[in-house]
Design goal:
The protein is mainly α. The protein has one domain. Helix content is 79%, strand content 0%. The chain contains 8 helices and no strands. The longest helix is centred in the first third of the chain and has 37 residues. The protein starts with 6 loop residues before the first helix and ends with a helix.
Length: 204
């Protein structure tokens, strides 16, 4: 179908990727709980753009470059780890009621989620290693094949991410009504981001 070896398996694999715990999911929840629907939707758009950047970088041959020069990929891992750890640290040390200093406007949510997605090793490995396996070299239709795959990723990603944001937004009012619990969740989210960062550099 459109040069994709197994379209159903490709879609299923991407859905499974979305459901796995990741910095991207954490960014969606954090943005929706603090920035409301506008912050959450901005975060969704940032995540979708990050996915598209990785997809088209793969198409452009970046995967081959990283395979030829492994230090580039290792450097990217360290950069992503440092960024996540920095975000997590700022959330942990923020005083109760102060709110995260790094998230102010919808544009902030958008940029941060996009960067988190682009630097997420799980997403990088999906696009650079797993994604090409679904391209049928015999029936490949050039840019049409990549466009169909990009559109599929965008639609599935939007449906999932919007659902996460909507559920989080509905629960956010109850969470904010309890300042202590809200502060606990903020610090827990920060520790999780630091943990994701450490996992990037340890599990290599």
């Amino acid at each position: 179908m459109f040069g994709i070896s197994d379209y159903g398996a490709f879609a299923a694999a991407f859905v499974l990727l979305l459901f796995l715990p990741s910095p991207g999911n954490l960014a969606l929840i954090s943005s929706a709980s603090r920035g409301g629907l506008s912050g959450g939707l901005a975060s969704v758009l940032g995540l979708l753009l990050g996915d598209q950047i990785l997809l088209w970088l793969t198409v452009a041959g970046v995967a081959a470059v990283l395979k030829t020069y492994p230090p580039l990929f290792i450097g990217l891992q360290w950069l992503g780890a440092a960024y996540l750890a920095w975000l997590g640290y700022k959330m942990v040390v923020a005083k109760p009621g102060e709110g995260p200093r790094i998230e102010i406007t919808p544009g902030h949510y958008f940029r941060e989620t996009m960067v988190i997605t682009v630097l997420n090793p799980k997403a990088i490995m999906f696009y650079f290693a797993f994604f090409p396996q679904f391209i049928d070299p015999v029936n490949h239709q050039g840019w049409i094949t990549f466009a169909v795959m990009a559109l599929t990723i965008s639609v599935l990603g939007f449906v999932y991410c919007f659902g996460v944001v909507l559920i989080t937004h509905c629960m956010a009012e109850r969470i904010r009504a309890n300042p202590r619990f809200s502060a606990f969740l903020q610090k827990l989210a920060g520790l999780c981001l630091i943990g994701f960062g450490l996992k990037m550099v340890v599990a290599k």
